[in-house]
Amino acid sequence: MLETRSSRQTLISPGRENMIVDHQQLKELARPLTLVGINRAAAETKATINNSVSANNEHLKQAEMAHRVAIWLSCVLLLAATCQGLKYGYYSRSCPPAEYIVRTVVGSAVRQNPGIGAGLIRMAFHDCFGCDGSVLLDPTPANPRPEKLGPPNFPSLRGFEVIDMAKTAVEKVCPGKVSCADIVQYAGRDASFFLSRGRVSYALPGGRLDGRVSLENETLAFLPPPSFNLTQLIGSFRAKGLSADDMVVLSGSHSVGRSHCSSFSDRIGTPPSNMDPRLAAALRRRCPANPTFSNDPTVVQDAASPNVLDNQYYRNVLGRRVLFTSDAALMTSRRTAAMVRDNARRSGRWEKKFARAMVKMAAIEIKNRANGEVRRNCRVVN
């Protein structure tokens, strides 16, 4: 979810249907990044900003043409104020290398630990039932229970240190310009790119502001848990302006990452409920009968390709090889079951739909200048 588009930085021409991935560049971009590397990148980008702006703007024009339908639909389905202020190439003048820096940090992190990439995609979703960076805020005496400590996020949400590193790197080049909320969405997009091996690629408008409020109880009120049935899932997504098709498409992110046993322990009893008996037996061997906070192992969501973001998830749903009640629920109506079969059959189509849904989701409940800011430190309000 990607990229600043200067000529030496582009891996994929944005908005192209027939994408060509330069794997050598991808490897180079995902090289380990240290603070020395950040400083070097900062020096290089400062020296080449004028050149990058021109090339960047040309690529962004192409991206805007290719994605105008997705963002238009987002603005139709959401309140007009929600989309106000979001713009492709938002940092093209104030901080041209911003997206490239975030992508470089994310590429390095995903190369070292693919699980972090899954965490960043999940973070983009968890922050974007109100895209304002509120999930990043640490506890304080004034607010001891922020979103970060809500049951959907703690202790399972990963990638905070990657956001910190990206923010530090961006601040070295463009202090006070790039919001943490935008960094979260860019990072989720970039993690999708790397984990999909370049098959999920899209331009993403920027301009989100960081919220000043973060409440643990809102995570339970708005984030759909893995125990939801289909009616509850559709209602939860619809409340945020997302359709049933968006919900099914975004569920495909469960092809990467891990889950705690406590999230699905009710599905692996004897006999298991609508789960492949072999998977249930394997999970019973891995998971305690009654998981606790101190004894709650994790398992991969997709044993077939655990570190690849692809449409294998939908084949797993069809084969009853999924962990969550909410995953299995997709087969409980003819309409959503047909969506599952379509996504399972058509390699390459789901990736495009996923990109569109991520752009749409990233426009939910954007803050304005009255209730938002650009944080200097993503973990605390200014």
Automatic annotation (TrEMBL):
What this protein catalyses is:
2 a phenolic donor + H2O2 = 2 a phenolic radical donor + 2 H2O
List the InterPro entries: Haem_peroxidase (IPR002016), Haem_peroxidase_sf (IPR010255), Peroxidase_pln (IPR000823), Peroxidases_AS (IPR019794), Peroxidases_heam-ligand_BS (IPR019793), Secretory_peroxidase (IPR033905)
- Source domain of life is Eukaryota
Query: Residues at site: Transition state stabilizer?
Result: 122
Localized where?
A: Secreted
Q: What is the cofactor note?
A: Binds 1 heme b (iron(II)-protoporphyrin IX) group per subunit.
Please state the protein's primary subcellular location: secreted
Record's Gene Ontology CC terms?
A: extracellular region
Query: In this UniProt entry, which cysteines form S-S bonds?
Result: 95-174, 128-131, 180-378, 261-287
Report the protein's function.
Answer: Removal of H(2)O(2), oxidation of toxic reductants, biosynthesis and degradation of lignin, suberization, auxin catabolism, response to environmental stresses such as wounding, pathogen attack and oxidative stress.
The protein depicted here goes by the name Peroxidase
Annotated source species: Eleusine coracana subsp. coracana
Q: Which gene encodes it?
A: ga29015
